[in-house]
Amino acid sequence: MRSMGRKIELLKIIAHPIRIQILEELTKGVKCVSDFEDFFEISQPNISQHLSLLRKDGIIDYYVDGRLRCYFLKDPIIPDLIKVLKNHYEEELPSPACCPVTKKGKYPGEGRH
């Protein structure tokens, strides 16, 4: 089980567009390096670097089938994270009417960031 610190590290590791795409593909099933080469427009060594980083942290692993390395997900949190990232949120959460402690004040609205 991952501690909160390890979960934060996990987010740092997967926070790259290629790694997110790799993980998204792996949520669909086992993939070999050649499958990723067909999917991405980057070099095989670059794909291998991303796979190596994900494997080093225990997020994914592989088995050997002849000359092929076939990758699969190991970390059970990944499908949930991918699902959350794919959600489309149309609206922001509602603003509070006032301070929950003092019950006074008023949200200044848009334009203040």
TrEMBL record:
Keyword Glycosyltransferase in annotation = no
Cite the HTH arsR-type domain residue spans from the record.
1-93
| Alphabetized GO MF terms | DNA binding; DNA-binding transcription factor activity
Keywords carried by this UniProt record: DNA-binding, Transcription, Transcription regulation
One Pfam family from the record: HTH_5
NCBIfam families hit by this protein: HTH_metalloreg (NF033788)
What protein name applies here?
Answer: Metalloregulator ArsR/SmtB family transcription factor
Q: What is the lineage of its organism?
A: Bacteria, Pseudomonadati, Nitrospirota, Nitrospiria, Nitrospirales
